[in-house]
Specification:
By secondary structure, the protein is an all-alpha fold. The protein has 11 helices and 2 strands, in the order αααααββαααααα. A two-stranded antiparallel ribbon has the order 1-2. α2 runs antiparallel to α3, α3 packs antiparallel against α4 and α3 runs parallel beside α6. The termini are far apart.
Amino acid sequence: MEPIMSQVSSIVLWFFTWPYHWTFKYYTLFPIRHIATVAAENNRLEIIKVVHAWRISKESELQFVKVASTVAAAAVIGVFSWPSVSESLWIAQAFWYMTLLLSIWAIILSSQQHTFLESMPLLVETSSKEDIDLNLGTILYGPKSMTVDAEQPRNATAFSVNWNMVFIWQCPTMLMSYSWAIFMIALTLHVLKPLIRREPWDDSSKIAVCYIIVGGTTTLNFAWCSFWSYRSARKPWDKKPFNTPSAIIAQVQDPSGGDSVGIQKPNDEATAKENAVAAS
Protein backbone atom coordinates (compact mmCIF):
# COMPACT_ATOMS: atom_id res chain seq x y z
CA MET A 1 0.00 0.00 0.00
CA GLU A 2 2.85 2.41 0.86
CA PRO A 3 4.49 2.15 -2.60
CA ILE A 4 1.15 2.99 -4.22
CA MET A 5 0.59 5.97 -1.94
CA SER A 6 4.14 7.13 -2.61
CA GLN A 7 3.55 7.00 -6.35
CA VAL A 8 0.26 8.85 -6.00
CA SER A 9 1.86 11.56 -3.89
CA SER A 10 4.68 11.89 -6.44
CA ILE A 11 2.16 12.29 -9.26
CA VAL A 12 0.19 14.89 -7.31
CA LEU A 13 3.40 16.74 -6.45
CA TRP A 14 4.49 16.76 -10.09
CA PHE A 15 1.05 17.98 -11.18
CA PHE A 16 1.22 21.05 -8.97
CA THR A 17 4.93 21.79 -9.53
CA TRP A 18 5.34 20.90 -13.22
CA PRO A 19 6.73 24.32 -14.29
CA TYR A 20 9.53 24.05 -11.71
CA HIS A 21 9.43 20.44 -10.48
CA TRP A 22 13.16 19.70 -10.50
CA THR A 23 14.05 23.11 -9.08
CA PHE A 24 11.60 22.50 -6.24
CA LYS A 25 13.04 19.07 -5.46
CA TYR A 26 16.74 19.88 -5.72
CA TYR A 27 16.78 23.36 -4.17
CA THR A 28 14.05 23.15 -1.53
CA LEU A 29 12.67 19.68 -0.75
CA PHE A 30 15.82 17.52 -0.85
CA PRO A 31 18.00 19.99 1.09
CA ILE A 32 15.39 20.43 3.81
CA ARG A 33 14.97 16.67 4.13
CA HIS A 34 18.73 16.29 4.48
CA ILE A 35 18.87 19.04 7.10
CA ALA A 36 16.18 17.16 9.07
CA THR A 37 18.30 13.98 8.94
CA VAL A 38 21.46 15.76 10.06
CA ALA A 39 19.60 17.63 12.83
CA ALA A 40 18.21 14.37 14.19
CA GLU A 41 21.77 13.04 14.49
CA ASN A 42 22.63 16.10 16.65
CA ASN A 43 25.98 16.60 14.92
CA ARG A 44 26.59 20.28 15.59
CA LEU A 45 29.25 20.86 12.95
CA GLU A 46 27.28 19.08 10.23
CA ILE A 47 24.16 21.06 11.14
CA ILE A 48 26.08 24.31 10.73
CA LYS A 49 27.47 23.22 7.35
CA VAL A 50 24.20 22.06 5.79
CA VAL A 51 22.11 24.96 7.11
CA HIS A 52 24.70 27.49 5.93
CA ALA A 53 24.87 25.83 2.49
CA TRP A 54 21.06 25.81 2.23
CA ARG A 55 20.93 29.48 3.20
CA ILE A 56 23.51 30.51 0.56
CA SER A 57 21.76 28.54 -2.19
CA LYS A 58 18.34 29.88 -1.17
CA GLU A 59 19.57 33.48 -1.22
CA SER A 60 20.94 32.92 -4.74
CA GLU A 61 17.63 31.39 -5.79
CA LEU A 62 15.65 34.34 -4.41
CA GLN A 63 17.93 36.77 -6.21
CA PHE A 64 17.32 34.93 -9.47
CA VAL A 65 13.56 34.93 -8.86
CA LYS A 66 13.56 38.70 -8.41
CA VAL A 67 15.37 39.22 -11.72
CA ALA A 68 13.28 36.69 -13.67
CA SER A 69 10.01 38.04 -12.26
CA THR A 70 11.00 41.59 -13.15
CA VAL A 71 11.68 40.49 -16.71
CA ALA A 72 8.31 38.71 -16.83
CA ALA A 73 6.48 41.83 -15.66
CA ALA A 74 8.35 43.96 -18.20
CA ALA A 75 7.50 41.46 -20.96
CA VAL A 76 3.78 41.66 -20.17
CA ILE A 77 3.85 45.46 -20.10
CA GLY A 78 5.53 45.37 -23.49
CA VAL A 79 2.89 43.00 -24.87
CA PHE A 80 0.11 45.38 -23.85
CA SER A 81 1.54 47.93 -26.28
CA TRP A 82 0.84 45.65 -29.26
CA PRO A 83 -2.10 46.95 -31.35
CA SER A 84 -3.26 43.38 -32.01
CA VAL A 85 -3.74 42.60 -28.32
CA SER A 86 -7.18 44.22 -28.25
CA GLU A 87 -8.31 41.71 -30.90
CA SER A 88 -6.83 38.70 -29.17
CA LEU A 89 -8.79 35.97 -27.38
CA TRP A 90 -10.11 37.09 -24.02
CA ILE A 91 -8.43 34.14 -22.28
CA ALA A 92 -5.03 35.23 -23.64
CA GLN A 93 -5.52 38.74 -22.28
CA ALA A 94 -6.66 37.32 -18.94
CA PHE A 95 -3.55 35.12 -18.78
CA TRP A 96 -1.29 38.12 -19.41
CA TYR A 97 -2.91 39.99 -16.53
CA MET A 98 -2.40 36.89 -14.39
CA THR A 99 1.26 36.82 -15.41
CA LEU A 100 1.68 40.43 -14.33
CA LEU A 101 0.02 39.74 -10.98
CA LEU A 102 2.05 36.58 -10.29
CA SER A 103 5.35 38.22 -11.22
CA ILE A 104 4.70 41.22 -8.99
CA TRP A 105 3.92 39.00 -6.01
CA ALA A 106 7.00 36.88 -6.77
CA ILE A 107 9.16 40.02 -6.60
CA ILE A 108 7.58 41.11 -3.32
CA LEU A 109 7.77 37.68 -1.66
CA SER A 110 11.33 36.94 -2.80
CA SER A 111 12.46 40.34 -1.50
CA GLN A 112 10.71 39.69 1.80
CA GLN A 113 12.31 36.27 2.23
CA HIS A 114 15.73 37.54 1.21
CA THR A 115 15.51 40.27 3.85
CA PHE A 116 14.36 37.72 6.42
CA LEU A 117 17.33 35.45 5.71
CA GLU A 118 19.75 38.34 6.03
CA SER A 119 18.26 39.18 9.43
CA MET A 120 18.91 35.64 10.70
CA PRO A 121 22.21 34.98 12.52
CA LEU A 122 24.81 33.49 10.19
CA LEU A 123 25.96 30.11 11.46
CA VAL A 124 29.68 29.59 12.08
CA GLU A 125 31.58 27.08 14.19
CA THR A 126 31.29 29.32 17.25
CA SER A 127 27.52 29.88 16.88
CA SER A 128 25.44 29.41 20.01
CA LYS A 129 22.80 26.72 20.46
CA GLU A 130 20.13 29.44 20.37
CA ASP A 131 21.29 30.64 16.95
CA ILE A 132 21.33 27.10 15.59
CA ASP A 133 17.85 26.39 16.94
CA LEU A 134 16.60 29.69 15.52
CA ASN A 135 17.81 28.73 12.04
CA LEU A 136 16.44 25.20 12.28
CA GLY A 137 13.08 26.55 13.41
CA THR A 138 12.61 28.27 10.05
CA ILE A 139 12.80 24.90 8.28
CA LEU A 140 11.88 21.98 10.54
CA TYR A 141 9.64 20.67 13.26
CA GLY A 142 11.87 19.79 16.18
CA PRO A 143 12.06 19.36 19.95
CA LYS A 144 11.23 23.06 20.44
CA SER A 145 8.11 22.87 18.32
CA MET A 146 6.81 19.54 19.63
CA THR A 147 5.44 18.49 23.02
CA VAL A 148 8.19 16.39 24.64
CA ASP A 149 9.35 15.42 28.08
CA ALA A 150 11.66 18.11 29.43
CA GLU A 151 14.03 15.40 30.71
CA GLN A 152 14.13 13.62 27.36
CA PRO A 153 17.47 13.96 25.52
CA ARG A 154 17.35 16.31 22.56
CA ASN A 155 18.54 13.72 20.03
CA ALA A 156 15.82 11.30 21.15
CA THR A 157 13.20 13.48 19.50
CA ALA A 158 13.39 13.24 15.72
CA PHE A 159 13.37 16.34 13.60
CA SER A 160 10.92 16.30 10.73
CA VAL A 161 10.16 18.35 7.66
CA ASN A 162 7.83 21.28 8.28
CA TRP A 163 5.70 21.15 5.12
CA ASN A 164 4.27 24.58 5.78
CA MET A 165 7.80 26.02 5.63
CA VAL A 166 8.58 23.94 2.54
CA PHE A 167 5.64 25.63 0.81
CA ILE A 168 6.70 29.06 2.04
CA TRP A 169 10.32 28.75 0.91
CA GLN A 170 9.36 27.47 -2.53
CA CYS A 171 6.54 29.99 -3.05
CA PRO A 172 8.57 32.74 -4.81
CA THR A 173 9.91 30.24 -7.34
CA MET A 174 6.41 28.82 -7.78
CA LEU A 175 4.93 32.25 -8.55
CA MET A 176 7.75 33.14 -10.93
CA SER A 177 7.56 29.79 -12.76
CA TYR A 178 3.79 29.94 -13.15
CA SER A 179 4.02 33.53 -14.39
CA TRP A 180 6.32 32.49 -17.23
CA ALA A 181 4.31 29.36 -18.02
CA ILE A 182 1.07 31.36 -18.20
CA PHE A 183 2.80 34.04 -20.28
CA MET A 184 3.84 31.42 -22.85
CA ILE A 185 0.32 29.94 -22.93
CA ALA A 186 -1.14 33.40 -23.52
CA LEU A 187 1.38 34.12 -26.28
CA THR A 188 0.53 30.81 -27.95
CA LEU A 189 -3.20 31.53 -27.83
CA HIS A 190 -2.60 35.00 -29.23
CA VAL A 191 -0.52 33.80 -32.18
CA LEU A 192 -2.80 30.84 -32.93
CA LYS A 193 -5.95 32.98 -32.88
CA PRO A 194 -6.50 32.73 -36.70
CA LEU A 195 -6.43 28.92 -36.51
CA ILE A 196 -8.55 28.75 -33.38
CA ARG A 197 -11.23 31.02 -34.86
CA ARG A 198 -10.85 29.41 -38.29
CA GLU A 199 -10.33 32.72 -40.00
CA PRO A 200 -9.61 32.91 -43.75
CA TRP A 201 -6.07 31.84 -44.68
CA ASP A 202 -3.74 34.85 -44.68
CA ASP A 203 -0.35 35.95 -43.36
CA SER A 204 -1.54 35.58 -39.76
CA SER A 205 -2.32 31.92 -40.39
CA LYS A 206 1.13 31.37 -41.91
CA ILE A 207 2.71 33.00 -38.86
CA ALA A 208 0.70 30.66 -36.63
CA VAL A 209 1.99 27.59 -38.50
CA CYS A 210 5.59 28.81 -38.23
CA TYR A 211 5.03 29.45 -34.53
CA ILE A 212 3.79 25.89 -34.02
CA ILE A 213 6.85 24.42 -35.75
CA VAL A 214 9.46 26.57 -34.03
CA GLY A 215 7.64 26.65 -30.69
CA GLY A 216 7.17 22.89 -30.62
CA THR A 217 10.80 22.24 -31.53
CA THR A 218 12.20 24.61 -28.91
CA THR A 219 9.84 23.27 -26.25
CA LEU A 220 11.00 19.70 -26.89
CA ASN A 221 14.60 20.90 -26.83
CA PHE A 222 14.02 22.60 -23.47
CA ALA A 223 12.33 19.51 -22.01
CA TRP A 224 15.13 17.23 -23.25
CA CYS A 225 17.93 19.41 -21.87
CA SER A 226 16.18 19.93 -18.53
CA PHE A 227 15.40 16.24 -18.05
CA TRP A 228 18.91 14.99 -18.77
CA SER A 229 20.60 17.79 -16.83
CA TYR A 230 18.83 16.78 -13.63
CA ARG A 231 18.85 13.09 -14.51
CA SER A 232 22.65 13.15 -14.55
CA ALA A 233 22.62 14.18 -10.86
CA ARG A 234 19.82 11.84 -9.79
CA LYS A 235 21.78 8.91 -8.32
CA PRO A 236 24.11 10.85 -6.01
CA TRP A 237 21.22 13.06 -4.86
CA ASP A 238 19.06 10.01 -4.11
CA LYS A 239 21.80 8.56 -1.91
CA LYS A 240 22.58 11.84 -0.15
CA PRO A 241 20.14 14.54 -1.18
CA PHE A 242 22.25 17.53 -0.24
CA ASN A 243 26.03 17.39 -0.49
CA THR A 244 27.60 20.58 0.81
CA PRO A 245 29.86 22.04 -1.92
CA SER A 246 33.40 22.83 -0.83
CA ALA A 247 33.08 26.35 -2.19
CA ILE A 248 30.08 26.99 0.06
CA ILE A 249 31.73 25.41 3.09
CA ALA A 250 34.66 27.74 2.59
CA GLN A 251 32.28 30.69 2.96
CA VAL A 252 31.59 29.84 6.61
CA GLN A 253 33.75 32.64 8.00
CA ASP A 254 34.88 33.63 11.43
CA PRO A 255 32.79 36.63 12.63
CA SER A 256 36.05 38.61 12.94
CA GLY A 257 36.57 38.30 9.19
CA GLY A 258 39.37 35.73 9.36
CA ASP A 259 39.72 32.48 7.56
CA SER A 260 37.25 29.62 7.74
CA VAL A 261 36.74 28.29 11.23
CA GLY A 262 38.12 24.83 10.79
CA ILE A 263 35.39 23.25 8.68
CA GLN A 264 37.25 20.90 6.42
CA LYS A 265 36.35 19.96 2.87
CA PRO A 266 34.65 16.56 2.66
CA ASN A 267 37.41 15.09 0.49
CA ASP A 268 40.46 16.40 2.40
CA GLU A 269 41.28 12.99 3.88
CA ALA A 270 40.93 11.22 0.56
CA THR A 271 43.06 13.88 -1.15
CA ALA A 272 45.78 13.48 1.47
CA LYS A 273 45.87 9.72 0.92
CA GLU A 274 46.10 10.18 -2.83
CA ASN A 275 48.98 12.64 -2.41
CA ALA A 276 50.83 10.20 -0.13
CA VAL A 277 50.47 7.42 -2.66
CA ALA A 278 51.65 9.69 -5.46
CA ALA A 279 54.67 10.79 -3.42
CA SER A 280 55.70 7.19 -2.73
